[in-house]
Specification:
heterodimer; A: mainly alpha; Serine Threonine Protein Phosphatase 5, Tetratricopeptide repeat; 44% helix; B: Immunoglobulin-like; Ferric Hydroxamate Uptake Protein, Chain A, domain 1; five-stranded mixed beta sheet; 53 strands
Chain lengths: 487, 1042
Amino acid sequence: MNKISAYILALGIAALGTACQKDLLTPKPTTDIPDWEAFTLKERIGNEATGLYTVMKNGKFLGGKVLIANDVRGEDFVNLTTNNVTLNASWKMTAVGESQEIKEIWSQGYMAINNVNVFLAGMAAKGNAVAGDSLAKIYAGDAKFVRGLSYFSLLQLFARPYWDGAGSKPGLILFWEPHTKLGDYSRARSTVKETYDQIIRDLDSAETLLPKLTASTKFSANKGNSYNAVALKMKVYLQMGQYDKVLTEGAKLIAGSGPFTSPAGYVLESDLKNLYTPKYAGKEAVIYMPFGASPGDFPGTQTQLGYYYSPASVGGNAEYALNTATGSIVADASWKSTDARRQFILPVGTRSFLVKYAGPSPYLDFAPVLRWAELLLIEAEAKVRVSNTVDPTAIALLNAVRGRSDATTVFTAANFATPNDLIDAILKEKHIELLGEGNRAMEIIRLGIPFPAKSATVLAVPPTAAGYIWPISSDELVYNKLAVDNQ
Amino acid sequence: MRKFLLVVASMLFLASTLLAQSHRTVTGKVTDEQGAALPGVSISLPGGKTGTVTDAKGAFSLSVPSDAKTLRISFVGYEAKTLPITGDNIGNVKLTADTKAISEVVVVGYGTQRKREVTGNIASVKGTSLANLPVQSFESGLGGRAAGVQITVPNGVVNNPPVFRIRGVNSLSMSAYPLIVIDGVPTFSGDVGSTNAPLNPLSSINPSDIESIDIAKDAAATAIYGSRAANGVVLVTTKKGKAGRPRVMYDGWVGMTTPTRLPKLLNAQQYIDIKNEGLANAGDARRYEFNKDANGNNIDTKWLDVVYRDRAISQSHSLSVGGGTENTSYYFSAGYTKQEGILKQNDFIRKNLMVNVDQKVGRIFSVGTKVAYSNESSLISGSSGSLEGEAFNSGGLARLAFLTSPIVAPYNNDGTYNTNGGSGIGGAKGGLNVGIYNPKILLDLDHSNTEANHIQGSVYGQLKPWEWLTLRTQYGIDYILMNNDAYSNNKNGDGYSSNGDATSTYTQYKRWMWTNTAQFDKTFNQHSLSVLFGTEQQRDQRERYGIGRQNQMDPYFNNSEGGWLTDLSRNMLRRSNYLLSWFSRANYNYKEKYFLSGSIRQDQYSAFGEDKKKGTFFSVSAGWEITKEDFWANSKLANVFSTLKLRGSYGKVGNYAGLGDYDALSLYRPVPYGERPSLYFSQAGNPNLGWEVSKKTDVGISYGFLNNRITGELSYYYNNIDGLILFVPQIPSAGIPSTTAIATIPANVGKMYNKGVEFSISAAAVTKKDFTWNTSFNIAYNKNEITDLAGALDKIPFVTSSLEQTSVNQVGYPASMIYVVRTNGVDPQTGRRIFVNKAGEQVYYNPVGAVYSYADGKPAPAVGTKDAVAYKNTNPKVVGGFENTFRYKNFELNVLLTYQTGFYVYYGSLAGMKDQRYWNNGVEVLDRWQKPGDVSETPKLVNGDNISNGSSFAIAANVFKGDFLKLRTVGLTYILPETALKSIHLSGAKVYVRGQNLAVMTKYPGPDPEVSSNGNNASGQGIDRNTLGNGRTVTVGLNVNF
């Protein structure tokens, strides 16, 4: 017995040197794909090109909080829950660099941008050869589109408007090179103008590289294509106040003098009910961030549009009610009670709620970044500003939007004594049309008007005030010694 | 080997020839030192097989060859004797207990050592001192019992792992928790559950199954664990059977815990007065008013009573059987405990079984096995707000208890739950909020439970062909199989918007390890040498998957298996790692006077970069027992000192605990994009990532006076962690991917040190027959300082629960400083909060219009966390304990005091209790500023103001000294007299009363200065944000031996 056991044990111990499993020391993850395999398969590269959009549509960025921030900084909403996690500080115009929404939007936006840069570098090194020329070209267009839109969205929140010093104020920190490992990435902010130049370069490039997908192509609004790159440029030039260029781009998209058509196939939904439905993929959509019911595909906790604005009866958390006070857009008498757009205002008790995003949890209403109605109004405004006349096409454009919801109101040149009156009408129309669609603060800043007061303790913020725009992320200032804050 | 076989062969030959010889019978009796008969003792001829065992009276009778000269008498747990056969009756033989088997031996990695030969720093705690404490896991009871060991029970949620530090915090980004080794198998630690109920895997061990705990502190004691030794090593040894008749033991207790030091809150009238004053000051015309209950009385709800138990009942029962013969020893135990927390619905239940069997197979081979199984359930309704990451949960019950307005009730007057028709509590009138969720509904309907099946087992084979050689192989497993079951109801709270939410998550942690060692022990001419060689492999596999279900079809359902409309996958994870090692240790001593020892270990770990997987760690140490020197022994000093040993050690050890299995890799993650496949760059790894390394120096003296009636140790240590792994924050605009706001990449940068002095003394102060008094005291001073972070980066702020920046790791300061904006009280003229900005200027804040101005009224830039400074230290400078045991006749009284001093706590909950939104307030606000000239700690109340009192950013006004002295345990035991027990056939019985956490002396205004909102996270200590306090427990128990 002893002898046997001795041998067994001796053998066992001797076997050790060989028994260890060296390959276990270099495990390959089974749930994520390691970088050395990222650009080796054509299909995988295609998925990565789609992934460029995935990072951008995160609820912390264009899938939610960018839109929410632009709306609640504006005057259209009343904060009900006084919760800083759901942007109470932004609503109160007291958000600071360490406020959660500021840090999140800043970093998520830059993650979208770096993801683009990493993708472009990976394609140049390896992926272009695997994907082949024609696909590689489209994917490059996707990358530029995402980068341009991401820079544009950040710029509206974190920089002074273009009119302030003709773009000479601090803009964004611009990166084109990929960041995949440890390094010192300190870099100073470019000017607002330099940032816009970069955005335009990216979108020009996207326009050339991407295919001309019309609105009848299902889900064409969920990714970049040649047409919506042009559409986005219209909005970019509008924010810059370069109305002639708005018209140059508009000419590529908007045809006719009423009714308006588009080579891209964009049309207004005749029934608004069809517009405000979960997963909207109709022909009015120009750029929409899509969601799906699988985990990761719907917006995360406290980033969902419906969660913020809808009352409990519609499946939301009633974080914000609509501002119905005297002087508010909701109380504006020229927005008739019969206007179809008022069906998306739901009174509950003494409050009124916006119910454009009526899809309940997990909140699958696509996030509207740009739609055809807005483009028509952008075109209208540019026409008036460039011509400085009560432009009849502009009136027709305005009527196209108003008429869809309120057939009883038809504007004529007689309604407008001056071109400015027409502009005011167009702006009001846009205010009504895009209520709760992530445009309000962008509009206020572009126009250089004050943010109105919201309560006895939340006072008006003039364009000269520091709080007119957001400060940049406090994390950026801690770690990037070259960055400076706004003001 | 040939020689060995020869010996065996010749023995067999000898035995066979002996049988043919003439015989005689030898008799005798074997007793222990006290003269009690020892049954089952082996009596044999040396080298021969012939033998017998003693009977129940200790007597034996053995037929032996007439020429046999000696008899060998051996018994497990006693020193074997070889006696000459002096006649047919050799009379009474007394066996003395083998001291190596009990107190004189300490457990070291891969073996044991006699205490007097140890050159490392090891503190030992006997299992009996923890056996019947009302704690869920043994380490929670270690506080104050060993010098340099800091235990902080972070909150009153049951089964939460304590903050456990040995000689300060020794890591920033990695885990700072010590390595826990149970019977030779390193086990999992931390909270391994996936629900709001924490699950500490160490609670699987019934404390009454623990024989001893040895805490290795310096490099000499820990370096044999190489890559896992940086935070110290805790070696737990469970009970084994002792030879002799079976000993049956029952221990049971029942107890009651009551919450202590809960915050004092406003009642309904005070709430209305305070809030309406705030509204008036804000220029808001709305006013709060009373709500009426069904009887028309004013509603005045004490939400603390809704959320806390006024008495939580706990009980524990353990039954064990141990025994053995010379060749076999066994220990079986079974236990059951159910312990209620001070939070309603928060329970811990454990059922456990353990078997230890050791068997000699023949003369040189032995085998053994240990199997421990436990089933643990951690139950809670939902977030308590107390675990890491939970501080700001909307449903965090500790916060809801103090935040919810007293003017509303849990129920409507018709008996239905009070809701606002949505996720929130109802009762708000005129647009004035009264709370977040209704905690009563969450407590009644929700659950968030983790059930673990934990199997720890090992088998070993040991071969001892010669006295000087021991070969051993051990294969061990540690499996934790968990079911996490959570439900959020569809009436109120987090589950409302999804119309109910149930999640089931299955998690398994699987570890196997295989250790092979060869131990050589040789003594020649007073030189004693022992050498160990070993190899080891350890593999961990983690897998987790879950399903979430939403949109419940009927309120009847509350688990994921019920009726639901929506299915979601959740909590997916699959990971593995592997550690491959060899190690060696040599101990040498000469005349037990001079000691030398060294160890070396090489580890290869899978999670590091391709070329960085290998790490080599070592230690050297030496000791000198001065009392053995002639000059000393001959001097008068020898009459005073019984031992005086100088020792010193130096070594290099590592750490990887807390590192993700794939952190060195760059990865792409699959996430759908609008129902289409997509992949994106999701992790920037560091291919150059290697070990976290620290170098430990330790010098000490252990001493004993007056025949060791007084013993103790004094030591100095310096732990130079010059190779930290830091999760280096990346500039956000660089866009490094992350799921949190700030991305990090792990890198081998940063330096920190801990240095300190530890002193302990124990004395048998009185040793009279009827009265004894044993006292022991320990104190440890520690200084921690970060000396380098990542190059130019001089500070890394830490954000509690992703929301509030509370702490900072900054060069030149200790880890985890409180990072707040300084304040300078309240301006007596205007009642405005005075902040001190980064430049040191005083800035006055007016909540009306959110205006910041200087004293002269000129506008000032807004104050925020950018003005924060590293304000106060959170690492206790001094920790220790003071234990006294008095025994008078059959009574025993044990009193343990613990203390920690030299640290501060950020009482963030106070910001909430002074928040001027709709939140209820603490009574502190009654002393608010009201008119010019008022001197107050609370600024003028302005409704909606969440800046002045620290809700928007952390402020110094909410930082307090944490120093405390706690009456940790008091135990009174009555030992029933033997005479009384004999008649009922018991061999021993005790009844006892224990008090735990009975009193605390502190200036800290919160519930308990022992607190941590960030769990064990080394970068966010000393934070008390919306955390549940601790309770006071009294138990009565009975211990019976059959």
